[in-house]
Structures are given as C-alpha cells and as structure tokens.
C-alpha cells in the first residue's frame, strides 16, 4: 500500500505492510518526504498501476529491522529504498511499532544494540521530531518512548525537542514517556498505577482461634490480621494465601471475600483497594494446626489467639486498644451474618484473553 498525503506543504509517501505474527504486531514502514524544490522523480503507484510525477527525491526515510518480516514487507521496503539510492541525502525517522489505542512505541535499545547510531545524542532529537511529524500525519493519537537507564542522557534530548513528552512511569531499569499527538481532543492516556491492591486475611481454625501477628514497628493495636500488597498480576485469593504463608508460615486456602474498602491519598499519593478475605487453615485429621512462625525482619510475633479476645480488642473493650472500626463492622455485620463475596472464573469476550475472575455476593443459605 502506498499512501499519498501532505506534510508541511510537501508530499509524504508512506509505504507500509502488516508484519508477520513473529514480529509481535510490529509495524514495518518507510516514509519519504518529497520536497517541492528538487528535481523530478517518477514514482509508481501500486494501487492504480499508473505513473505519477512528483518533485524531488530527498527522502525522509525510516526502515525498521526486517529480520523477521514477511517477503511482502521486505520487497516493499526494498522498492521504497530503491526510489532513493543516495544514502547521503537520507534523513531518518526512528523505528517504531504500532501499539494499542492507536498509539506507536519507540523502544530505545541499549548501547550494545544501537548499531546504526540512530539513538545517539547527536541524532536523536532530530529523528524524534521527524517521527512525531510522520505519526501526526498518520493520525496516531499518542507516541510512547521507552528509555533504558543506560540511555538516560537521551531524556535531555527529548526535553530539548519540546514535543510535549511527559514522564508516565518507570519500571525496573526502563523509563516510559508519552506525548499526546492529537490537537483536537485532550489526552486520553490514563495515569499509571492509580491504585494499590491490599489484602487482609481472617484465618480462623476449628478451635475458634484467629491467626494474628504483631509487626516489628508501627503497631497501632496489640494484634492484627496478616496483611500485605498484591503483586503485579496476582489474584486477590492468591495474594491473601501468599501473605499468610510469608508472614506466619501457615498454609491456608482462600474461602471468600468478606468486604473491601476504597481509600484515597495513601502511599505515594495513590488510592488503595483493601480486601478483607476469609481463609481456612490447613489442619490434620485430628484438627491440629501448624504453629505460626513469624517472618524474619518484618514480623515480631505470630500466634493463634482466641477469637473472643480478638473481637474484644477490635471492639475497643480492652484497656490496650481503642478499637478498630473497620474490623468491628466486618466481624459484626458480615462475618456473624454469614455474608460473603465469592469468586468464579468466566471467559472473556475478547479473543485470546484468558478467563477472568468475577466476584459476586452470596447470601447465607437458609435451612428449613
């Protein structure tokens, strides 16, 4: 496909082809800026088979890696490059891939991977500016740039180019920036990591004892249930089971969710979703349970305490506690009444997406 359009008063010829699945949805492209003040060049339009006259042969060209490209993609690029054989007159743009929500992504390679110098400090700002111009002409909504720590110096070049890039998030050793390319509507790119997901575990054994811990620091109550944050990609059920095992050494299975709260302005200014879960501890045939072992460097003590003692504490009926309103409500209004939120897995309507957990309220069964 060859597309003719206009960029800054010049003719832009954009040749693209869909890549193979091995290219992970990548985009193979070559773009050429035909300036109005140079000699005539004759270009062939694939769609019509006719010859069309345009001025100049100075290209604004980008050829991304074609190592895994399809034969059609390779031939398209070879044809495009053959139109402008003079490498001394080529002005490049940066390789990118098409990504979700009508965006494009440029991944800056590490120093060892940048063999052609496109990501050198002296070339990057100009190439990035050219790339933004091309993507705006192609009506892309936004552009992402992933910068590894080894190329952090390029951030100054991105700022100097004044293209509207802003920090979005950092993960591991990679920083990700975004520029919204559309001028007709405000940015639709959401904030990164607006919420933390936390879990708390109500683990009660057959002896009517509840599993509690005392942390090494910041203990607002004499005892508390095991709590922690869910890892990226971890389900609520799995997070609750993992936190109990890590903090106390107790193996338990998540039975249901009792309640959750939604709080704003928490750690790092993020919002917080905290799920209180009901877990059943593993017991032997005699009803014996494991002895808790506190997690080193984090938990000072872990033990089973009588449920009645715990409830007096959260209700503020002991001298050493002023009460815990959240847990009082959970125990009195939810746990005692047999209310719970269960989970089932359902298939996704989106092709290729794995099944998703669906949470739903379940009332206690009523016996005749």
From TrEMBL:
Give the signal peptide as a residue range, or say none if absent: none
Keyword rRNA-binding in record = no
Domain Nudix hydrolase spans what residues?
194-331
Any one GO MF term held by the record is: ADP-ribose diphosphatase activity
Q: Which UniProt keywords apply?
A: Hydrolase
UniProt cross-references to InterPro entries, sorted A to Z: NUDIX_hydrolase-like_dom_sf, Nudix_hydrolase6-like, NUDIX_hydrolase_CS, NUDIX_hydrolase_dom, Pre-Nudix
* Keyword Hydrolase belongs to the record: yes
Database matches in CDD domains: NUDIX_ASFGF2_Nudt6
Q: Which Gene3D superfamilies match?
A: 3.40.630.30, Nucleoside Triphosphate Pyrophosphohydrolase (3.90.79.10)
One Pfam entry name:
Nudix_hydro
Family membership, please give it. Belongs to the Nudix hydrolase family.
Q: What is this protein called?
A: Nudix hydrolase domain-containing protein
Source organism phylogeny: Eukaryota, Sar, Stramenopiles, Ochrophyta, Bacillariophyta
């Amino acid at each position: 496909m060859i597309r003719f359009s206009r960029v800054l008063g010049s003719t832009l010829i954009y040749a693209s082809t869909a890549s193979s699945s091995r290219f992970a949805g990548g985009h193979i492209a070559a773009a050429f800026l035909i300036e109005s003040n140079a000699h005539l060049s004759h270009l062939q339009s694939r769609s019509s088979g006719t010859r069309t006259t345009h001025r100049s042969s100075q290209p604004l060209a980008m050829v991304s890696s074609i190592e895994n490209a399809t034969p059609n993609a390779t031939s398209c690029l070879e044809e495009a490059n053959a139109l402008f054989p003079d490498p001394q007159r080529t002005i490049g743009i940066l390789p990118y891939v098409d990504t979700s929500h009508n965006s494009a992504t440029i991944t800056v390679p590490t120093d060892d991977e940048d063999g052609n110098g496109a990501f050198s400090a002296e070339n990057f700002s100009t190439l990035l500016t050219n790339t933004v111009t091309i993507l705006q002409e192609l009506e892309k909504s936004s552009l992402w740039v992933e910068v590894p720590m080894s190329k952090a110096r390029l951030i100054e070049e991105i700022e100097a180019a004044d293209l509207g890039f802003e920090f979005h998030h950092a993960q591991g050793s990679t920083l990700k920036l975004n520029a919204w390319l559309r001028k007709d509507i405000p940015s639709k790119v959401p904030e990164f990591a607006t919420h933390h997901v936390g879990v708390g575990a109500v683990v009660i054994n057959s002896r009517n004892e509840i599993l509690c811990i005392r942390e090494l620091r910041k203990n607002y109550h004499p005892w508390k249930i095991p709590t922690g944050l869910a890892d990226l990609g971890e389900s609520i059920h799995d997070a609750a089971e993992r936190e109990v095992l890590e903090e106390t050494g107790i193996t338990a299975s998540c039975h249901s969710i009792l309640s959750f709260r939604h709080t704003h302005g928490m750690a790092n200014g993020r919002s917080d979703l905290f799920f209180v879960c009901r877990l059943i501890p593993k017991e032997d045939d005699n009803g014996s349970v494991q002895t808790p072992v506190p997690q080193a460097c984090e938990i000072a003590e872990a033990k089973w305490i009588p449920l009645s003692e715990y409830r007096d504490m959260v209700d503020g009926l002991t001298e050493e506690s002023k009460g815990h309103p959240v847990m009082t409500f959970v125990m009195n209004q939810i746990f005692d009444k047999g209310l719970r939120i269960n989970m089932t897995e359902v298939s996704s309507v989106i092709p290729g997406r794995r099944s998703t957990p669906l949470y739903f309220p379940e009332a206690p069964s009523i016996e005749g």
